[in-house]
Amino acid sequence: MEGKAYYVNKPKVELHVHLDGSFRPETILHFAKKRQIKIPADTVEELLNITSYDKPLSLTEFLAKFKFFMPAIAGDKEAIKRVAYEFLKMKAKEGVAYVEVRYSPHLLANSKVDPIQWGQKEGDITPDDVVDLVNQGLREGEKAFNIKARSILCCMRHMPNWSLEVVELCKKYQNDTVVAIDLAGDESLNLEAAPGHRMAFEEAVRCGIHRTVHAGEVGPPSVVREAVEVLKAERIGHGYHTIEDPHLYKELLNNKMHFEACLWCSYLTGACDPDFTKHPVIQFMKDKANYSLSSDSPLILRSTLNTDYDIAAKYMGLTEDEFKRVNINAAQSSFLPEKEKEELVNELYEAYDMVGTKGH
Questions:
Q1: How wide is the angle at C-alpha 272 spanned by C-alphas 18 and 57, nearest 5°?
Q2: pTM (two decimals)
Q3: pLDDT tens digits for 122-140?
Q4: Dihedral sign, CA of 321, 324, 330, 336?
Q5: Active-site annotation, residues
């Protein structure tokens, strides 16, 4: 593709990517064999054929893919540390300078995960163990691959009884890679009926823990409003359907709310019109919204971060200037402490030959 090099070779910032959607197929097969866990594949190609796809499905069908590989990794200390380390190797190869990777400590703690409801069946290691292991893998990966990484701990909408433990883990590890709390899962589940989520996010606000929420991916704008007004979200995961409520959209534009967009993911989950030339991110571009591009779940989407930049360049008119703006947005909207955030922004300005233009 003409002009492709400008984003392939420049440092990027990625804010919305799931660790448990980024495992290497080889690693899944290794631990399935080592732990004698049956998964319906013996080779990388067989595994990818089962876990990934290239035509739109529903978000529910997308989430059901996790049942095929999570048992091989979840509940195993060596595996959890290794996937965190390997994740940074992958991201460094993609030119990512800084990444915030998210995961559910509870789902990774349990090897016996219900494939449909993602429910907890039997504990192998604790969620606290998981966070410590991921932190170890990330710290070692940072040194080995010259990349900066922080983590976000996910609450799950269908498991509100986990959320208070998640925020306690955020507090415990706040100075040890963990920078924020997230809420992920089925947006149709009523927040009022799940007070655990609200209580966890209230505690996060009280303790200065940053907050992002999956909202407006497949759900209506009301879910986005709830995320902002009830959960006090500082960033919105996806948020495409926000534009269907012009008043809310304008309000969030004025407040510089950051939207974590994942283009290929939005296509394969059926979140948006399959015609990329009609994608809500084009509206974000036109309105100079505060948004960034991320890969979400590369294993299931069979993609890299550059897949999303390819789509933006080919179908949405992503220019080199817009690429720079998007990544500077991401750096400025990251959950790093102010001093580290400023260092990251300066690093991008230098890499983009923009020194002297900062603030313009």
A1: 65
A2: 0.94
A3: 446 999 999 999 999 999 9
A4: negative
A5: 217
